[in-house]
Amino acid sequence: MAADAGVTLGVLLGGLAIKYTGVTWIDPLLGLVIVIVIVIVIVYGAWGLLSDSIKLAHDAVPEGINLEEVKEFLENIEGVDNVHDLHIWAMSTTETALTAHLVMPGGYKDQLLYDIREKLHEEYEITHTTLQVEREWSDEQYQPYKNE
Ligand SMILES: [Zn+2]
Asked: β-strands 128-134, 82-90: how paired?
């Protein structure tokens, strides 16, 4: 709306300027200036979305989330000896998912999973959390866990 009004105003002023000065190249110059301004506005407006889309396409950890920080948070939970297979990715430009394996030799209560999920939502805006709890680190692709 503001852009339309701006263009109309520009054309009007251009017309008046030509009428009073007789300089006719004001018209094409004005057209060029308007086009350049419109392109700048569009590129500026679309840049954020484009940037988010590129990151999404590359499965990148979303902006504002530090993977190491989240890993540390999970590792510091009482009863958690190890965190592995931690993945954080954007499901869309507004939704973030997390999956992780937590090694908890002493077991856990379901409430803990809900608490972790809440905390991840509050602190990191992670809205889809999937946790796998393991009594011991038994995944074949990993070295056995040693607590030293
Ligand atoms: Zn595992």
From this structure: unpaired
Q: What confidence score (pLDDT) does residue 58 get?
A: 67
Largest alpha-carbon pair distance within the chain?
88
- For residue 85, how far is its CA from the centre of ligand 1 (angstroms)? 6
Whole-angstrom Cα distance, residue 67 to residue 65?
A: 6
Find where tokens 């008046």 sit: 16
Q: Rounded to the nearest whole angstrom, what is the distance from the C-alpha of residue 108 to the centroid of ligand 1?
A: 15
Q: d(Cα 104, Cα 118) in Å, to the nearest integer? A: 19
Is residue 107 within 8 A of residue 135, CB to CB? The reply is yes
Domain range summary for the chain, segments of one domain joined by +: 2-57, 67-134
Query: Ligand 1: distance of its center to the CA of 95 in Å?
Result: 24
How far, in Å, CA of 85 to CA of 83, rounded? 7
67-134 folds as GMP Synthetase; Chain A, domain 3 (3.30.300)
Q: What average pLDDT values come out for the chain (148 residues) when binned by 10 residues? A: 80 86 86 87 83 72 89 96 94 92 94 96 95 82 54
